[in-house]
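Protein in question kept in full:
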Amino acid sequence: TFTMFSNSVTNGGKTTLAEKLKNMLPNCDLISQDDFFKPESEVETDERGFKLYDVLDALYMDEMVTSIRNWMKSPASSGVVTEEPQNMCDNLKNVYILIVEGFLLYNYEPLNELWDRRYFLTLPYEECKRRRSTRVYQPADTPGYFDGHVWPMYLKYKNELEQNASVQVDYLDGTKSQEELLSYVYSDIIQELNKLRE
């Protein structure tokens, strides 16, 4: 099995990238961190009234780790589509690939031992804020939420990641086109898979 994951600032394009990769790679499955959010009633609120969604405590991380480990134990029984894309090299047809995508993945130690490849999509402040403003969230962002909680938490966790020399991450420019990002990551994964099979 081969596990990789895509981490990103909010609206960095990780979900779109992960879903496109899933359709291009052999025997590939996808787990999304968004599926492990706690219900709103269990998410803490700070003194400003902001719901603290952009922190690890807002997620059932133990359940996420269990889901990933269960997939790794038995990928063939996970329901993953086993039809290989055309022109796939014969030596990759028996490889199972898991993509994990989310916004807080590299700062949770129990996950860090699981990955073969790590990607992190970045965006500058203005572009990130612009993209965020075009999305509809449930619950909806309150006034000042992006500047008061979302962006500071992104900077905090990204800084922690950059200072952790034991975690190797490939940083990607989220302002580049989806086609360019997809081409780069796909080629990189195929190269890594070929190395593993040699």
About this structure: The radius of gyration is 17 Å. The mean pLDDT is 85. The longest strand covers residues 2-8.
